[in-house]
Specification:
This protein has 15 helices and 13 strands. It is an alpha/beta fold. α8 packs across α10 and α14 crosses α15. The longest helix is centred in the first third of the chain and has 22 residues.
Length: 497
């Protein structure tokens, strides 16, 4: 599109981006202003940066926002963008003001002892399919159309449903289903100071070939418009709980032990360190990693005091390190977009970060989850490979439990897990959350028998390979199928106890 002498329409909102380029803060400002707007409203972006002439139209194409017109007078540029397609939605009289979440302080409480996790305990990995009304509330909250108190009440109702389903299935250790999270990892951005969630499509103009990368995401069945990515624009600081409030509410709903999943430090570092977006806040990914470690340690201390049975650190990007490069193909993992060195350096970095986070905490209350990708039911586009190249790193991580994908053939042979520390609990995936059917008793019990022979009943934990709805907008199962799968695991476990 060629520049025009003057816009023929009046913007609803306007801001001046100065000389910022799309990789140096401008996209964050655009997202800050456009999210609260109604579909069809017009945003004016003023800029003196020449690279924006190409990058902003590319951003519009990839995010399905229409570039209406732009002007250029000397160095000064003005871009008029419609939120969404022109004519979409009903234009409001004025844009809604962004809502800053304000949470009541958590009351002081006495430290709670952790409940005992029995042998052959059955648990979900973390996420549970959200009701449609929960997903709608989540989007309204992120876009500033729903206040925090109303969002939390809605989420409380969704958590009650998720916990009730797990209790009906007979699960030993409960999760809250991650109902308040947009995904298993990126939600942290909305809880930290100086971090902001932006759609994955916002970062596509920053890669070498945005159109090719967008096509690859479509081939991998990745809903790029629905997946949100954290963007860091200052020093990270924990000013409120990341997930401790989730545990507080879950413990008020159930009397069973509660497990909670946290994105691990390597995952968060790989996700948050994108040099083009982060370099003004941190000089290196080691620097941002140090603050991430501090944030997670503060959170874990709160969780331990609050009575959580098990804190599970999710580190699926470890699989991307050893399997994606070997296959020389693109894979979608949160964090796979950022800089990566060779597998040896990456695994050592991950090991050191995890050990820095867990140092000094009760080891039996800390677990680690690894899988090979959980964004689509299509097994053919997910990573594959045995735990052999990871086992050396895993056994050096000072956690007390490993919860590992094991049902899918992509995970290789279970016997390799014998190399893990003998004093650690071993969690074995015995059903595949990607499959729409419920595995038979014979199928599940065969996996459990093999695990008992390898590790003994006392060490064993049982679970699905991964969560049922890693991304809120893209669940892999219905709630009824998820409940039926957990019930099938419980029935097999009780028969073999």
């Amino acid at each position: 599109m060629e520049p025009v002498a003057a816009h023929t329409e009046t913007p609803d909102v306007s801001f001046d981006g100065g000389d910022l380029d799309c990789g140096n803060g401008l996209l964050l400002l655009i997202r800050k202003h456009i999210d609260p707007m109604s579909p069809g409203q017009l945003l004016e972006i003023l800029s003196t940066e020449i690279s924006v002439d190409e990058d902003l139209p590319a951003w519009c194409r990839l995010t399905s926002n229409d570039l209406v017109s732009w002007t250029k007078h000397g160095k000064q540029r003005s871009f008029l963008i419609s939120k969404g397609k022109r004519g979409a939605g009903t234009v409001a009289a004025a844009p809604a003001a962004p809502i800053t979440p304000k949470e009541a302080p958590r009351p002081a409480r006495a430290a709670m002892a952790a409940p005992v996790i029995p042998p052959m305990a059955v648990t979900g990995i973390g996420s549970w399919p959200r009701p449609r009304w929960m997903v709608e509330a989540m989007h309204a909250h992120m876009e500033g159309r729903l206040d925090d108190a109303s969002f939390q009440e809605t989420a409380n109702d969704a958590v009650r449903l998720a916990i009730a389903a797990q209790e009906r299935a007979g699960v030993t250790m409960i999760t809250d289903g991650e109902q308040r999270r947009d995904s298993y990892a990126s939600f942290v951005a909305g809880r930290l100071e100086n971090c902001q969630l932006i759609p994955l499509t916002d970062v596509l103009p920053l890669v070498d070939d945005p159109e090719e990368f967008a096509a690859e995401l479509r081939a991998l069945d990745v809903p790029a418009a629905d997946v949100r990515h954290p963007a860091v624009f200052g020093k990270l600081r924990r000013v409120r709980p990341l997930v401790a409030h989730e545990v507080d509410f879950a413990l008020s709903v159930t009397k069973r032990p509660v497990k909670v999943a946290l994105p691990g430090p390597y995952l968060l570092t790989r996700t948050m360190w994108m040099e083009c977006l982060t370099e003004n806040a941190y000089a290196s990914r080691e620097a941002i990693a140090a603050d991430i470690v501090s944030v997670l340690r503060e959170e874990i201390a709160d969780l331990m005091e609050g009575g959580v049975a098990l804190v599970q650190l999710d580190e699926p990007v470890l699989s991307e390190v050893v399997f994606a490069g070997a296959k020389n193909k693109r894979s979608f993992m949160c964090g796979a977009l950022s800089e990566s060195l060779g597998p040896e350096q990456e695994l050592a970095f991950a090991r050191d970060l995890v050990n820095a986070v867990v140092a000094g905490f009760p080891r039996h209350r800390l677990g680690l989850h690894v899988c090979r990708g959980n964004w689509t039911p299509d097994e053919t586009v997910a990573l594959a490979g045995s735990y052999a190249p990871l086992i050396g790193t895993l056994k050096q991580m000072r956690v007390g439990a490993y919860l590992l994908e094991m049902c899918t053939p992509r995970a290789g042979e279970m016997a390799i897990l014998k190399e893990l520390p003998e004093d650690a609990r071993i969690g074995v995936g015995v059903c595949n959350q990607k499959h729409a059917h419920v595995e038979s008793y014979d199928c599940i019990s065969a996996k459990i028998r093999e695990a008992i022979d390898l590790f003994g009943r006392e060490r064993l934990l049982l679970h699905p390979d991964c969560g049922f709805a890693t991304f809120a907008d893209n669940p892999l199962a219905t709630a009824s199928i998820a409940e039926a799968k957990l019930k099938a695991i419980v029935e097999a476990a009780e028969a073999l106890a």
